[in-house]
Design a protein that fits this description.
The protein is built from ten helices and nine strands. By secondary structure, it is an alpha/beta fold. Helix 1 packs across helix 10, helix 6 runs parallel beside helix 10 and helix 8 runs parallel beside helix 9. It starts with 7 loop residues before the first helix and ends in an 8-residue tail after the last helix. Bound molecules: ligand BJW.
Length: 254
């Protein structure tokens, strides 16, 4: 049962919708045991601020530290499984004719859950690229060197993610902006809505007349602007929404 009541108008509009776009952030993976970006880190990493590690300057200063932070995060994600929130988005994609899943997450859990039309705006933890040449590498040696070296030029490898001050991949960003501007319903799920240009997407959707739905247990800077605010965990609210909209017998009594 959902923590928040599901507005009847949202249920009706989602049932009829032909174009839906969804923006996800770290909160959707929280119920898989993956820490969100801005929550306090634990263990070895507790004394570091993630915003100060996710920059090219941090990598230049201390490439080993930054590489090892990402190696630690990769390991945590490897041990995690997609949760009910990820799976509910797979169900929505099956039912809506044009569905775009825009994610800021680098954990790959949407794909592992079975989503198809995914735009990864901030890259992926499981890929690496050369810091000097800015070109992806197919694989890298898991040997003594940290970070490993680029097999082409011998430069340092870095995770293929988008750090602060770097531009987002142009194709996925353009596609995300198009999906936001043409959606009838736009969901912002599990994101603090602080980081641009992703944080601008719900406003692009609002500007073209979409209903914007936020799912988050905490208010964000987007909250005052949304059409429907569902306060609670994505892993509870999304399956309840799918059941209510599409499953016979999933209709809630008023
Ligand atoms: C739950 C839950 C549950 C918990 N269910 N919910 C305009 C204005 C001001 C600044 C800028 C601007 N345009 C650009 C900038 C600069 C900068 C920026 O936005 N800074 C802001 C911080 C102010 N942006 C950039 O630099 C971007 N580049 C760019 O714009 O290039 C051109 C340019 C450059 C310079 C100047 C101007 C233009 C690049 C941004 C790249 C962000 N990269 C990161 C790291 C990726 C790799 C990694 O993971 O290490 O992406 S930062 C980090 O934040 C990560 C995330 O994807 C991103 C968003 O975080 P997210 O997902 O929202 O996570 P949290 O932890 O913040 O929030 C979790 C939420 O979940 C919370 O709200 C919880 O309540 C909720 N939650 N449990 C549902 N169960």
């Amino acid at each position: 049962m959902s923590a928040a009541p599901l507005p009847a108008e949202l249920v009706t509009r989602l049932r009829a919708a032909r174009r839906v776009a969804v923006l996800t952030g770290a909160g959707i993976s929280a119920e898989s045991g993956v820490p969100t970006f801005r929550e306090a880190q634990t263990g070895l990493w507790a004394r570091y601020n993630p915003e100060e590690l996710a920059t090219p300057e941090a990598f230049r200063r201390n490439p080993k530290l930054v590489w090892e932070w990402y190696a630690w995060r990769r390991e945590r994600v490897r041990q995690a499984e997609p949760n009910a929130g990820h799976r509910a988005l797979v169900e929505i994609e099956r039912r809506v004719p044009e569905f775009t899943l825009i994610t800021q997450n680098v954990d790959g859990l949407h794909r592992r859950a079975g989503s198809h039309n995914i735009l990864e705006l901030h890259g992926n933890l499981f890929r690496a690229k050369c810091f000097s040449e800015d070109r992806p590498v197919e694989s890298w040696p898991d040997g003594d060197e940290s970070p490993p070296r680029c097999p082409r030029c011998g430069g340092l490898l870095r995770p293929d993610v988008v750090w602060f001050g770097e531009t987002l991949p142009a194709g996925p960003l353009r596609a995300a902006e198009h999906a936001a501007a043409t959606a009838e319903i736009f969901f912002s799920i599990g994101t603090s809505a602080l980081v641009y240009p992703a944080a601008d997407l719900p406003f692009k959707a609002l500007a073209t007349g979409a209903a914007v739905v936020e799912i988050n247990p905490q208010p964000t800077p987007l909250s005052p602007h949304v059409t429907f605010s569902l306060n609670g965990a994505a892993g509870e609210i999304l399956p309840a929404l799918v059941a209510r909209v599409w499953e016979p017998g999933g209709q809630q009594r008023p």
